Amino acid sequence: MKNITTIGRIxxxxxxxxxxxxxxxxxxxxxxxxxxxxxxxxxxxxxxGIMLIAVSISIIIKKYIKISTIIxxxxxxxxxxxxxxxxxxNGNDQTVTLIALLKDISLMGGSLMIAGIYSEEDTNSAx
Length: 127
Hints:
127 residues; mainly alpha; 5 helices; 87% helix; globular
């Protein structure tokens, strides 16, 4: 069973590294989709990319998983609140936006589950 959870943890983390790299490669695309009230424009996109890569590496190498997955869940919540919901309200390609919103909700749930699993393991190993 441990091999399955290791594979699942790595498969969960890898796309976030790719998303993070995309924040640097596709900077103009991300600048086009951020809403006007997100501060610092391209700097926010680069910071987000760095955070996604760092969280992915942390999850893969199994260091600071609990805090990394909580940070990831917060980041996903911010994407939902500042990008997906405003785009739904403004009527921007609602089908694609709804899919992205639901994807991020699902990933946020997975991230919180991983955080919970690793906090339980930390508690059980301390006994």
